[in-house]
Amino acid sequence: MSRENGQGQEKVLRWVQDLLMDELDETQRSSITPALISEKIDQVLGMKPSWGEGLDRGLLIDELIRRFSLWIGQDTLLKSDAGHQVWLNASRKSGWRYWRRYEEWMERKISPTAVLGLALSTDTVLGLLEDPTREGPWDRRGLVVGHVQSGKTGHYSGLICKAADAGYKVVIVLAGLHNNLRSQTQIRLDEGFLGYETKPGAEDMKVVGVGEIDSDLSIRPNFATNRSDKGDFNASNARLVGITPEQRPWLFVVKKNKTPLDRLLHWIRNRVADTHDPETRQKLVTKLPLLLIDDEADHASVDTGEQVFDAEGNPDEEHSPTAINSRIRKILGAFTRSAYVGYTATPFANIFIHERGATREEGPDLFPASFIINLGAPSNYIGPAKVFGTRSQDGRTGGLPLVRIITDHSGANGSGGWMPAKHKSTHRPLHGGEPALPTSLVEAVDAFLLSCAVRKVRGQGNEHSSMLIHVTRFNAVQHEVVL
Fold first, then answer.
1. How many CA atoms lie within 13 A of 85 on its CB side?
2. Domains with residue ranges and CATH for the chain
3. How far apart are the C-alpha atoms of 69 and 31, rounded to whole Å?
4. Which residues contact 13 (CB under 8 A, 6 or more apart)?
5. For the chain, which residues score pLDDT lower than 70?
6. Torsion of CA 89, 105, 295, 240, to 10 degrees
7. Is 392 helix (H, G, I), strand (E, B) or coil?
8. Cβ contact 9:41 at 8 Å
C-alpha cells in the first residue's frame, strides 16, 4: 500500500467512524457489526471513489470493531467540598472552542469511547476545581492518579483546554527535571492546546494539532516557553510577555529546576501582581486565576525534609522546605485564586504529605486536600498485570505471551558472555569473542524495524514509535552497546 493509499485508508476510517457515531446512540455502539461497517464504507466510497484504491477493507473493519468494542474503567474519587461551590453545568460548557477542537483532534487518534471517557473524566476534575470567575480568594489542590503510560498527558491536555474555556487565564505546567522532557511536554501541548509550533524567533508559526481544526487567531492561546531544548522560561522571553486580564490564556511549560522557577516567581511578583497582602506585604495576583499542573507530582515536588509538629498538630512555620517544593508553593501563594492538580502513577509520597504542613513563607504544603481521583484504565490498556500476570498459589497466571526468555546474553552458569547477570562498569560486551550484539537482540531490533514499516504502510508513519534497549545499569557499559 502506498503512502497515498494509507492516507486514504485513514480518511475512510474517520468518515465511517463519524457516520456510526452520528447514527447510533451510546447503547447501540457495542452491537456494531462488520456488515454495518461495510455498508458505511460503501457510503463513503460512493462520495469519494478514489479513496477505495488499495483500500484494505478487512483491516478497516477490524480496526473499527476494535474501537467500538473498547470500554473504560470507572474512575474512583475521594473529595472534600470544604469551601467549594458547585459551578460546572451544561450552560457553562456551551461554546467551548478549546475543548471542542481538542475533542475532534483526539477522535482522529483514539476510539470514540475513549474520547467520551476523557470528556467525562476531565469534567469531573474541572468541576472539583473552583469556578475561575468566582470572586474572592480560593485555593483548590488535588491529585489525579493514572496507570503508567495510560494517557495522563492527554488527560491534563484536555483539562487545560476546558479550564481555558471556563476562564482560567494562566496555565503553568511543571514538566520533568531535564530540558528534553520539558521540550517533549511543550510539543504535546503545542499540538493539544496551542495549535501551533512554538519555535524561538519564528515569525510564521506552523499550524499543528488542534490548530488544523480551528486556527482562529482570536482564540489562539499565548505562550511564554517554546519547544526548543532551551525554551524554558528565562529573562529574555519574560521581557516580551505581558499579561492583562482581558487577554487570551497564557501557557508556561517549565521544568522542575530552581532557576527557571525562581525566574517565573520573580516575574509573577513584579510584572503580574496587582496588589499587596496588607499583613505580609507580599505581592499578589488577584485578577488572573491560575491552573498549575504538576506532571509526575511525586518526583521532586514533595518536601522530603522533616517538618516538626507540636502536640496540637501545629507545624513549625520556620521549617525550610526543599527547593522545588518551596518555589511551587510560593508560585501558588502569589495568586489569590489558584488550582493545583498533580498527576502521577505512584501517589504514595503525595498522600503522605502532612495535611496541616505549612510555613510562613510558602504557605500550605502540596497535600491534595480537595480531591484524589484514580482514573479507570481502558480495556485495551497493557500494564504489568497483563504482561506478567498476577501471583497465585500456582505461580503467576493470566499474563500475555509477551515475555521471551533468552539465554545468549551470558554463559551457562550466568557468568561470562555478552552481558552476565553480575558485571562491573569496566565490562565490555562481546558475543562470540567479537564486539557484536547477540542474536536475540538483533532479532528484537529487526522486529521493531518491521513493525515500524508496517505502521508506515498503514498510514501511521508520523505516529510516535520507540524501542528501549536497557541491558545494564552502568552508563559506560550501555555506551559500549550503543557503539
1. 9
2. 3-69 (no CATH), 76-374 (3.40.50), 404-482 (no CATH)
3. 9
4. 60, 63, 64
5. 1-7, 24-30, 202-204, 235, 237-246
6. -100
7. strand
8. no
